């Protein structure tokens, strides 16, 4: 059994907590890396960067950011900035709670004040990734580094390709989905049942895994006037693995019953 959540937002945290309190203490995978996730979850990026074998250290404090001589770092309880006299060179963003001033990202600016490079720091104070932005302020490339500072993963947001240096073997994936499938198999998780809470990438992973399984969608969003097409595919039985939908909120479940014009044996409410 395995949890797969796209992000570790409040809804995912609440679901994870409920599962643990109910005795389900299987692994939890978060698809997007933030650098400050708790030790109780992991990510594909952390796996390949070797973060899972690292003893947790200290995050980087705002005044530990390296700057040229005579540049100044200014900070408050929300964020910070780096100045060369009166010219702003960078924005500093803190992890929650922000009053601790622990750095999660530094946005470096060009002469026009536009973001061109973002440095990403983790809870151990390590520079684990860098993002490159174009003039239109879109992220075009993100590079993740291993514990020795070597390139491990390069994610191209223009072509959607990912390049992985896996033990000196270069692997190219045409999509993030391909990369995630490779990771789940490489990490040797028990994939007989996946619990997920999004009809985006986690759902795509469920339907593209070659292994058989019985997956569960926990629907934590509101319905926007209709049943989503991907959920309808689960109800119609046209996807191989996903066979059950759980809607924890009673009011949202009642909305489903109205939209579906009745109950469905594959959909349950916890309320």
Largest sheet strand order: 3-4-5-6-7-8-9-10-11-12
Share of β-strand residues? 25-35%
Low-confidence stretches: none
Chain-averaged pLDDT: 96
Give the overall shape, derived from the CA principal axes.
Answer: globular
Give a quick account of the main beta sheet: strands, pairing sense, barrel closure: 10 strands, antiparallel
Q: Helical percent range?
A: 10-25%
**Structural class computed from helices and strand pairing:** alpha/beta
Tell me the number of structural domains: 2
Order of helices and strands: EHEHEEEEEEEEEEHEHEHEHE
Instruction: Please provide the count of β strands.
Output: 16
Organism: Streptococcus pseudoporcinus
Protein name: Accessory Sec system glycosyltransferase GtfB
Keywords: Transferase
GO molecular function, one term: transferase activity
């Amino acid at each position: 059994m395995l949890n797969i959540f796209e992000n570790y937002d409040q809804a995912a945290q609440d679901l994870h907590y409920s599962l643990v309190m109910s005795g389900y203490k299987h692994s939890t995978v978060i698809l997007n890396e933030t650098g400050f996730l708790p030790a109780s979850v992991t990510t594909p990026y952390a796996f390949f960067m070797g973060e899972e074998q690292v003893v947790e250290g200290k995050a980087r404090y705002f005044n530990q950011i390296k700057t040229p001589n005579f540049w100044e770092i200014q900070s408050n309880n929300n964020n910070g900035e780096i100045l060369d006299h009166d010219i702003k060179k960078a924005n500093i963003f803190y992890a929650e709670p922000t009053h601790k001033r622990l750095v999660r990202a530094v946005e470096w600016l060009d002469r026009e004040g536009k973001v061109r490079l973002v440095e990403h720091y983790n809870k151990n104070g390590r520079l684990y990734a860098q993002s490159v932005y174009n003039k239109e302020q879109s992220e075009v490339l993100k590079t993740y580094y291993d514990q020795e500072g070597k390139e491990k993963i390069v994610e191209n947001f223009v072509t959607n390709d990912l390049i992985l240096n896996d033990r000196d073997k270069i692997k190219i994936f045409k999509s993030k989905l391909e990369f995630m499938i490779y990771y789940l198999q490489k990490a040797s998780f028990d994939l007989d049942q996946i619990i997920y809470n999004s009809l985006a990438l986690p759902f795509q992973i469920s339907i593209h895994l070659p292994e058989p399984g019985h997956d569960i969608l926990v629907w934590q969003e509101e319905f926007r006037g209709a049943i989503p097409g991907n959920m309808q595919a689960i109800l119609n039985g046209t996807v191989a693995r996903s066979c059950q939908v759980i809607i924890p909120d009673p009011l949202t479940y009642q909305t489903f019953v109205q939209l579906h014009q009745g109950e469905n044996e594959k959909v349950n409410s916890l309320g």
